[in-house]
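Technical note accompanying the year-one report. For the benefit of new consortium partners, we illustrate the data format agreed upon in the data management plan: each record pairs a sequence with a C-alpha cell string. No post-processing was applied to the example shown here.
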Amino acid sequence: MFKRFMPPARVATALAAIIFVAALSACSSKPERPKPAELAPNAALLGVRLAWTARLGEVNFPLQAQVNGTSVTLAGSDGTVAAIDAASGRDLWRGSVGAPIAAGVGSDGQRAAVVTTSNDLVVLSAGRELWRHRMPAQVYTAPLVAGARVFVLAADRSVTAFDGQTGRRLWSQQRPGEPLVLRQAGVLMAVGDTLVAGLAGRLVGMNPVNGSARWDAPIATPRGTNDVERLVDLVSGVSRMGDVVCVRAFQASVGCVNAARGAVLWSKPANGAFGVGGDDARVYGTEADGRVVAFRRDNGERAWSSDRLQYRGLTAPLAVGRSVAIGDSTGFVHLLSREDGTPLNRLTTDGTAVAAQPVLAGGTLLVVTRGGGVFGYVPE
C-alpha cells in the first residue's frame, strides 16, 4: 500500500505542481472579489478581556500553534521559535533556526520541531538546536513530536519518522496520489498508539513503530475533469473527541472517523478550504464563501448555518466555552454562539489577518496574526 520515496524527477514535478496550485489559487478568474459582509455593531453579550500581548516575527506560512498544558509553542517566518506561558504571555524560551520557516510548530513540551523553506527539519529543546535533517521534499504541515519521535508529512505524501533525540531516520513510507497537492498544512496526529495522517482525501492509521498501515478511511474521492478539480487533500484543523476524529477534505467534504477501528462514521459535502473545530455535539466549519456551518457530530446533518461573516477570509473555528471563535482577514476574532451562530462578541487584534486557528491553553484564548502579534484573551 505504501511505497518508497518518489525519484528526484518526480519530486521536482510534484513541487512544481505545488507552486502552480498556489499561484492558481491567488489568481482568481473573477474580475472582482465579492465584498466582505459588513459587520453589525458589536453586541458584547459574552464578557472577554485582553489579558496580554506578545510579539513574534511576521507569519507568512501555514502556522499551527501547539498547546502543551498551559504553554503554547509558536513560530515566525523569520526563523523565531518561542514557547509562551499562556497565563502571562511571557516567554518560557525563545530561539531561532537561522532560516525562514515553512511549517511548524510541533512540540511535546520538551522538544519543538519546524521545517525551513530550505526543507531542513530542525528540532530544538528549550530554544537550543538538537539536530537538523534535510528533507527530500517540501513540507507545509507541522511535524508531530510524540513518543520520543518526530514524524513529518511532506508534500510528496511521504511520512517519515525520526528519533527525537538523535535525529536518526527510523522509517519512511509514501503513498501515490493526485499530481497536485495544496500549499497548506495537512493532518498529522496521534490517536492512542496510532499515527494518523491525511494522505490525499483519506485518513490513514499507521503503526508509529514501522509506518505500516493499520486502516484507511476515505473522506473524499477525487472527482472532476482536471487535476485542480480533483484536489481533495485533508487540511489542518481537526476536531477530536475520544477516538472520533473529524476533518475536512479541501473544497469537498467534512467527515468523521472512528480512529480506533478506522471506520468512517459519516462524510458530508462541504465547500471549505480550512479545517474544523468541534465539541461533543457539533462540528464547526467555515465554507469558501465565509458561511459558518455547524454539523451534528452524530450524523453530519446541518444543525445551523450563518452568513453574517461572508467573504471575510475566515480561519478554522475553535469551540471555546459557549462560543465558537473564528479569526478573519482584517484581524477580528468573532465569537459566535455554539447553539445557533448568533454573535456574542467581537475581539480586536492589530488589524492584520489572523494567521491560524485560535487555540485554548489553560483558560486563555490565544490568537496569532500575520503581523506577528500574539494576543491572550480571558473571560471577564
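Partners are asked to follow this layout when depositing records. The first strand starts at residue 48 and ends at 55.
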